[in-house]
Amino acid sequence: MRTLTGVGSTPLSGVGTARWYRPEADLTLPERPAPATVDGDAERARFAAARDAVRDDIREARDRAAARVGEEEAAVFEAHEQFLDDPELVDDIEAAMAEGTPAPHAVSDRFAAAIEQFEALDGPMAERADDLRDVRDRLLRALLDAAPGTDVADLPPGTVLLAERLTPSDTAALDPAAVAGIATVTGGRTAHAAIIARSLSIPAVVGVGESLRDVDAGTDLLVDGSDGRVVVDPDAATREQADTAATTPVPDRVSTADGVPITVAANVGSEAEVAPAAERGADGIGLFRTEFLFLDRESPPTEAEQYEAVTAALSAFPGEQVVVRTLDVGGDKRVPYLDLPAESNPFLGRRGIRLSLDDHRDLFETQLRALLRAAAHGGDADLAVMFPLVSRMTEVESALSAVDAVAADLEAEGVPHAIPDVGVMVETPAAVFLAGRLADAVDFLSIGTNDLTQYVMAADRENDGVAAYHDPLHPAVLRAVDRTTAAAAETDAWVGMCGEMAGDPALTELLVALGLDELSMSAVTVPAVKTRIRQIDSAAARARADEALACETRAEVVDVLGLDRD
Ligand code: PEP
Ligand code: MG
């Protein structure tokens, strides 16, 4: 038995038989012919046809991924389409073909240069090289008429898939019932492939390094994504530990070691995610992103469709709470039929509650009608409703008046309804500074650290060029969270967190110490976060959190919290 270490990416473990995935091996280029013998026009036509075929493939992969793992994760395929149409790449490839380079060689050369440029960068930017490889391999496969290689969608049960790296397309095609785990030589926790593996609940350890290459196919392996280890030929005791962890019933509600109860809820971005969230032991839903009901269609969903979707989620969590967020589009989320204005700074423009109150009041009222009717749906979970991207008290007042007006209409029509608890998302610095007043006006606050980090740090969450700035561990973001919880503590409102930060088990102690009553996350991390909560000693945790709040840099925060990361 021997243990290799990497970065735990999906905090689950699995045991199975190693199988190498080497897609590059199927894409050997033919010998390069003399330039004079190459017909540039024919090569350009071949390249154009390959691009069209790949575009169709990418769109198909996007739709499949959206159905299986949700819209947000599927967005990576839109980035792939942008690489496919990148004018600089395309122009360079066409120029090379005009000078007598065959299409496959031109694609391979130009993509190699772009991949090298990305690899020279730090952190998440370097991981975009994997996205480029994905697009390159698709193009080469189309140009060379190559078979898709090992069919990752059809692996035998109990496979531990080993690869140099996995592309997002490969990962989205995996069958979680067959794949016991994934281990890769390179790659990080925030690469898109890693995010998709998490959404599919496949145990994964990435970035194991050279030593993984020595593992032969057919070897028994344990992949432990909680501790970031890959155990080669695990002995019976080690297997048993993994089995126990996998089958340990997820504890119901959990409290810290000294008895502070914390709600651990799930974020849900598609209908398909509701049942797995309940299976993983989530204490209800802390963020139901209603956008998925509005995307990929020609017109908005009806009141009845929205009522159905929300009541289905309520039925999956009897006795718990389901927090539904009203429509949050604009910014990076475009909905063609809504005719959203073109803006030079969409993240600072008409998005979230601003669109609902100012531009699409009709949609907002229809959604509220569905929600108030669902709130009266007896016997299941309690419904709560929250508003995204609030920055002014007047928005909360308007939204609450809209709730009252819709309730009055339903009353007059004799339609059964109830007024749910109402909350506000804290995603802007304005909401942080107003947190006490907001908390007085509503039942709860939910901190959306994805956007809050973007606005506190002035760093676009979608722009890889500023990924190092979009950092929830920066002391300024921690202080914004602390300020919010401290202000709300003076009121009766509870405070949750539903940004990605809430699902990082290494930060659970800090977040609980900062006073969060609820953490809401991608369902797969629920068991790991619950386990951490039960180990927390509140006084020691608060002392460490105070030290973190006093830090000036991320590096100091990482050091104070004893985190194993750069
Ligand atoms: C957030 O901003 O942290 C959040 C949870 O909302 P979304 O990621 O959907 O913008
Ligand atoms: Mg947000």
Classified in CATH, the superfamily of the largest domain is: Phosphoenolpyruvate-binding domains
Spatial separation of the terminal alpha carbons: 29 Å
What is the CATH architecture descriptor of the largest domain? Alpha-Beta Barrel
CATH level-1 class of the largest domain: Alpha Beta
Number of domains: 3
Strand adjacency order, main sheet: 1-8-7-3-4-5-6-2
Report the CATH topology name of the largest domain. TIM Barrel
Instruction: Choose one word for the global shape.
Output: globular
Give Rg in angstroms. Answer: 25 Å
Helix coverage percent: 40-55%
- Largest pleated sheet: 8 strands, mixed
pLDDT average, as an integer?
91
Low-confidence stretches: none
Query: How many H/I helices?
Result: 22
Can you count the beta strands?
A: 17
Tell me the structural class: alpha/beta
Strand content: 5-15%
Q: Compounds present?
A: phosphoenolpyruvate, magnesium ion
Brief descriptors of the model:
566 residues, alpha/beta, Glucose Oxidase, domain 1, Enzyme I, Chain A, domain 2, TIM Barrel, 8-stranded mixed beta sheet, 8-stranded parallel barrel, 22 helices, 45% helix, 15% strand, globular, binds phosphoenolpyruvate, binds magnesium ion
